[in-house]
Design brief:
Helix content is 23%, strand content 41%. By secondary structure, it is an alpha+beta fold. It has a single domain, classed as 2,3-Dihydroxybiphenyl 1,2-Dioxygenase, domain 1, CATH 3.10.180. Strands 2-3-4-1-5-8-7-6 form an 8-stranded mixed beta sheet. A hairpin with a 4-residue loop joins strand 2 and strand 3. The longest helix has 12 residues. It starts with a strand and ends with a strand.
């Protein structure tokens, strides 16, 4: 599996606007994009830290995956995203190695990425997102 970097760390938050202010005021980061991803029932906010990003995630639906995560575990780290230059190959390889896939086929995420999630059960309790930038 050819991973290139940690693309971002996804953090589940209850209130996107308040959390954006927190990251701007406390850490001096600048939110450069807010985007809704209907497929995942989230609104996301992005901050750049060097080559990596922080992605804040707020649920847009009471039954969305982020709402359920916060209900069960509270706010906190939701997933870690690894960048790959070939998502299809990476998914195929993960499946061959008996990693439980949440998405067997790539879906569309924020920032023009193709994404797919690997189940925490197969990864030491960490939800892992594999993502590939769509070629423009
Ligand atoms: Zn993500």
């Amino acid at each position: 599996m050819n991973l290139t970097k940690i693309e971002h760390i996804g953090i589940a938050v209850k209130n996107l606007e308040e959390s954006i202010k927190h990251y701007e005021n406390i850490f001096g980061l600048k939110c450069y994009a807010i985007e809704e991803v209907k497929d995942q029932k989230v609104r996301t906010a992005f901050f750049m830290i060097g080559q990596t990003k922080i992605e804040l995630l707020e649920s847009t639906e009471p039954d969305g995956p982020i709402a359920r995560f916060i209900e069960n575990k509270g706010e906190g780290i939701h997933h870690i995203a690894f960048a790959t230059d070939n998502l299809n190959d990476a998914l195929k390889e993960a499946a061959e190695k008996n990693i439980q896939l949440i998405h067997k086929e790539p879906r569309f995420g924020a920032e023009d990425f193709k994404i797919a999630f690997l189940h925490p059960k197969s990864n030491n309790g960490i939800l892992i997102e594999l993502c590939e930038k769509k070629k423009s």
